[in-house]
Amino acid sequence: MFFSLLPSFALAALQSPQPGHTLVAPFGSFDTNLVDEGGNVIHTWPGTALPGNATYLRENGNLLRMYKTGGSPASVIGGSGGGVQEIAYDGTIVWDFQVATATELLHHDMALMPNGNVLLLCFEDITRTGAIAMGRNPAFTNPGDAFFWSEKVIELDPETLTIVWEWRLADHLVQDFDPGAANFDVIANRPERLDLNFPGTVPNNGDWIHLNAIDYNPELDQVVLSSLFLNEIWVIDHSTTTAEAAGTTGGLTGKGGDILYRWGNPQAYDAGGTADQTLWNQHDIQWIPQGRPGAGNLLVQNNGNGRPGGPFSSADEWAPPILPDGTYSLTPGTAYDPPLASWSWQDTPPTDYFSSFVGGVERMPNGNTLIIEGATGTAWEVEPGGTKVWNYSNPSGTPLFKARRYQKFLFPGDSTLSAAVGGSIAFDLQGGNTLASRPFVLRAQVSPGPPSLRTTIASGVLDASGFASASLNTGGALPPAASGRSILLRWNTTTPNDFASDVISVVILP
Question: What is the model's pTM?
Answer without folding.
Answer: 0.95
